[in-house]
Design brief:
Blueprint (H helix, E strand, L loop, with lengths): L1 H56 L6 H16 L5 H18 L3 H10 L4 H36 L2 H5 L26
Helix pairs in contact: 1-2, 1-5, 2-3, 4-5
Length: about 190
């Protein structure tokens, strides 16, 4: 009868371990799915920001040099390979720097609206869309990086490494690029 009790205890412990490992593997799977979802959302917001910059650059409200700089930077972000994260993030940082140079202060934005003349509402609309797109990029990158950090934290646990619960999935990386909205669009 003692061997039956020992066998029952071993079965309960083994069953508990299997349930724990299965729940940890499920958690990792959900985290990896969230990473894919947030990365897709970040991609969408980056495309939206690039399109908003392109619209502003082609509107005719900017001086020719600023328009050319913004148009070139936006075009580069729209044609870069989305699978090449390092190149894409470099190009996105360059777009952020160009936006910051063109719309550096509130006076720059007010001057742009003043030069729009009767189309001031259109200029204001374009600047508003750009401001929203910049804030959404900032939020999407933050959400993505939070999920990546959570996943990496779970994957560093010994039980996950010992039992290879992550399988052969590569370790996710954060999206590191400059996404600071231009100071001139802060009030929009």
């Amino acid at each position: 009868m003692d061997w039956l009790n020992e066998l029952l205890i071993a079965a309960v412990v083994l069953g508990g371990l299997v349930v724990y490992l299965a729940s940890m593997a499920g958690r990792l799977d959900r985290l990896h799915h969230r990473i894919e979802t947030t990365h897709a959302a970040l991609d969408a917001q980056l495309l939206r920001r690039g399109a908003a910059v392109q619209d502003l650059a082609s509107s005719g409200f900017l001086d020719p040099a600023s328009s050319l700089l913004l148009s070139a930077a936006a075009q580069e972000t729209l044609v870069v390979d989305p699978a090449d994260d390092s190149r894409r993030f470099l190009v996105e940082s360059e777009l952020t720097r160009t936006l910051g140079a063109v719309l550096d202060t509130r006076e720059d934005v007010e001057e742009l609206c003043a030069e729009a003349g009767p189309d001031v509402e259109v200029a204001d609309l374009l600047l508003g869309e750009l401001a929203v797109a910049c804030r959404r990029v900032e939020l999407a990158r933050r959400f993505h990086n939070d999920v990546v950090r959570s996943c990496v934290q779970v994957r560093r646990k010994r039980v996950v490494r010992w039992f290879r619960l992550a399988g052969y999935t590569p370790l996710p990386t954060t999206a590191d690029f400059d996404d600071t909205p231009p100071a001139g669009l802060a009030d929009r």
